[in-house]
Specification:
Layout: H1 2-13, H2 15-37, H3 42-72
């Protein structure tokens, strides 16, 4: 019973990785649109895109950490 609950909790926690994938896609899609509109700001916009990527990827890593905590600690 407890193992089943752990598996269900871990599966529910992995949904955040799908959200992170969508977020990363949005970040780089916005970068492409912005550079297409104003190519002279490409270097500055790329820095902002990398920051957005890092913050979005951090959410996915926190979700992965929660999955491992659910499966192996509790």
């Amino acid at each position: 019973m407890l193992e089943g609950a752990k598996s269900m909790g871990a599966g529910a926690a992995t949904i955040a990785s799908a959200g992170a994938a969508v977020g990363i896609g949005n970040v780089f899609s916005s970068l492409i649109h912005s550079v297409a509109r104003n190519p002279s700001l490409a270097k500055q916009l790329f820095g902002y895109a990398i920051l957005g990527f890092a913050l979005t990827e951090a959410i996915a890593l926190f979700a992965l950490m929660m999955v491992f905590l659910i499966l192996f600690v509790f």
